[in-house]
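REVIEWER CHECKLIST
Item 1: Sequence provided? yes
Item 2: Single chain? yes
Item 3: Sequence as submitted:
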Amino acid sequence: MRKRFVFLFVLCFVLCCSCSFARQKKDAPSLEEMAGAMIMTGFQGTSAPPSVLEAVARGRIGGIILFDKGKKAGESYNIESPAQLRALVSSLQHAAPRTLLVAVDQEGGRVRRLKAERGFFALPSAETMGRMKEAEVRDLGFRAGREMAALGINVDLAPVVDLRISPESPGLGDAGRLFGSDPALVTRQALAFGEGLYRAGVLPALKHFPGLGSAGKDSHHDLPDVTASWSEKELLPYREAFRTGWPGMVLVAHIHHRGMDERLPSSLSPAVIDGLLRRELGWDGVVISDDLQMGAVYKGRSLEERVRLAILAGNDILLFGNYLKPDPMLHEKVFQAVLDLVRSGEVSRERLEASWRRIETMKAKLAGGL
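Item 4: Structure as written out by the authors:
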């Protein structure tokens, strides 16, 4: 009887181990899945093109970014109305085998993809929120997040934690995108806004690391050199956010600081991302690049080179807005570039898996009931 019991126990143990191993193999991501998870891109149209829906369904796109206005006056890009947007996002999420990250830049004021004139909540600018009480800013974040979540949007590429240092501040201060110049105030208001978003079910993103507030150029067009103007105090909002358990991601700027990296801009620099951000400041969550089609990194670099440098630097999500230079097959080109890097041995499978794990861990927070 004892022998029979031992035999049955061993048999059950082996079967359980076999089933567990089979589940692990089934659940283990393929190279293609991991490559796709790292890609966030956009498209033209108020409904998703078939090529994009197919790529999403095959796991070759892990994130979508949406824009509001087109190149012509009054023209819509992706967003016309709440009903249209809800249908668009629903079609994308239904196609996706896993939770799809759907992002907008909803900072408030002029940088607001969901505009009041199209039936969305009128979110004030960061400059205006900088003069409000912290509780009011938290409530605005929650209201904005609740609207986004109801539309199916689960990522807001906000808040901006850049300090107003440069008197010019092109593309930032002149657009009302900065909470202020005092690090304590910026930290307090930005983290309150981010907390409101997260409570509503939307992942926030701190930007633009390591600090764009002293830039004298707009990185949409040219690479700003902040070597002489950047200050350590620009890291204070990040230090505090990480200390208190920031739930979202960090977006890295296209700036050049020769003291950090003699050759490469911050968004493509291992010294800035793996060094300063991860090792020195201790951030172990998701890092997303700023748009890799912006002039600051686009000039003089092929798509393949930008993808290679961005991954080797430590970015988890490669953002290609596909807005500044539209290409209906951009997502496929980026996907193939990632695969080619792994197949050539320039990037290891383990490197992709590290990003995959961080992205999945972050997405699990959405499913956990915020």
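Item 5: Key structural point noted by reviewer: The chain has a mean pLDDT of 91.
Item 6: Recommendation: ____
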